[in-house]
Amino acid sequence: FSSSYALLVSSTRTHFHDKMAAQGEISSGGPEERDHSLQSGDVFRKEFKRYKAKDPPPKLDEVVDFETTQDRKVIPVKIDPNNISDQESLSRLGLLHPSEWRVFGLEGFLGFMFILNPWRRGCQRYWVTRCLRDYPCKPNVTNLDKQHHGIDNVWREGYPDYKKYRQQQGKKTQPKTLLHKLRWVTLGYHYDWDKKEYHQERHTEFPGDLSQLSTHVARTLGFPHYQAESAIVNYYGLDSQLGGHVDHQELDYSKPIISFSFGQTAVFLLGGKTKSVKPTAMFLRNGDIMVMSGDTRLAYHGVPKILKPPITGLLPEGLCEVDRKVGLHESMLAGVMEEEWEPSALFMEECRINITVRQVVADGGSFGKRSCDDGLQSESKRTKETQYPIGS
């Protein structure tokens, strides 16, 4: 039989507040906070604690694995060929042709899409290099700014000490380095973590390559008017978590949040619009791309665990080597060749990087006016329930 997967537009306009875990704030263990999971209906936190556990570690047999696609919840999604264009951009960005992408949805999560590692081999290295060497530079904002004033280039300042740390790993007296303390970088419109909002004046130029990448993915999946205006780059150590939260600070909910994962594997939880909904756990591996739109745009989500590699120091597939036959665009060469890649590889042995890109202001809108409902309605009219046929 055949069916269809519709990106239904939600008109819900509800504000959420999660006092226990601020959006985008990555923790690395530490003292346990008061257990609110015992409160009635907080199913999300109960599942978060279950997957976060270290002793004993959680069983992972219920985690959705899009690589095997044997889970009955997983729904294959076909891309509309009319959305595919611009071969030069594909080469420059390092992506496979969309006809080769493996795209999935999840039963019960309208608007959620998962692209299974659509990169040409080795091209993830370029984006990891950008996240390590370029994005944490001024004028972009990092979590280190308040405590470490005057650092213009975090990687350049921090890598020598990090390399020494790794060479002497195992000594308990070793202090954490600057790179260990790097948790996040904001790009474009810089999110205000204290006030939990965006400001028009807190803005720097959004990276052109990341804008092209995000726009290309959005258009291919049926969002032709998407504009990449803000991004948060999160850096996870092997003991890091991202608490459950909802991304509701943007002024337009009609556009998706696009998430790019690089490095070690994470367990990701996707829930509903309240914490009473039991979340679904899934693996996010190196190269995977995730899109949250429609009903899932305002869903609770979080990362309770980063999985240690089966062999210490093992890099994920896709970061280990470069296929020189793929004809890398010249703009990507500097970051992927072995001599330049070696320092980044050392860091990524114990790290996961996630980039979440979002549109902050509605098309034709402005700051000071939350145009979410208007944007949702207009997007619905433009797309007329964008549909993707599903094979049986």
Question: Can you tell me about this structure?
Answer:
The protein has 392 residues and is an alpha+beta fold. The chain contains 9 helices and 16 strands. The protein has helices at residues 43-52, 87-93, 124-134, 154-167, 178-181, 208-220, 333-336, 338-348, 372-383; strands spanning 3-6, 26-27, 74-77, 103-106, 109-115, 141-142, 184-188, 230-237, 241-245, 257-263, 266-270, 280-284, 289-292, 301-306, 351-358, 387-390. A 9-stranded antiparallel sheet has the order 3-4-5-13-10-15-8-7-6, covered by helices on one side. A 5-stranded antiparallel sheet has the order 2-9-14-11-12, covered by helices on one side. A two-stranded antiparallel sheet has the order 1-16. Strand 4 and strand 5 (109-115) form a beta hairpin. The protein is globular and about 50 Å long. The N and C termini lie close together (5 Å). Residues 1-24, 29-39 and 372-392 have low confidence and may be disordered.
Briefly characterize the structure.
This protein has 392 residues and is α+β, with helices and mostly antiparallel strands. 22% of the residues lie in helices and 20% in strands. The longest helix is centred in the middle third of the chain and has 14 residues, at 154-167.
